[in-house]
Amino acid sequence: MQQLLNDGLNSYNDEVTGYSDRRPLAITVQDPETGEVLGGATGRTSLGMLFLELFHLPTSLRGSGLGSEILQMFEDEGRRRGCRVAMLFTISFQAPGFYERHGWRRFGEIACDPPGTSRVFMTKDL
């Protein structure tokens, strides 16, 4: 069902815009010995926008600068693909401060559960 909806919407968007430029994007961190993926960032590019959908590093890799490096690589690839703006959403207890330190700005916030928590929408000009 999800694939049917996705394909239908993409087909409509392509017809209306004359663009068919959506491409997935992933920056991964792998264990150098085993090749196991430990974390990273995933998203996509489309219509001049970079979408950051998922970003996770295990606790043992946080605070080392690796997250900043991954984010920079993700943004740089978006620029190479012609993106002029980026967007993401995070949760108030996750990483809004991390993104703000890297030039992202909030453009919306919606309360969610548990009480006192919110979904934070962010953007950055590339």
UniProtKB/TrEMBL annotation:
Residues 1-126 form the N-acetyltransferase domain. This is GNAT superfamily N-acetyltransferase. The lineage of its organism: Bacteria, Pseudomonadati, Pseudomonadota, Alphaproteobacteria, Rhodospirillales.
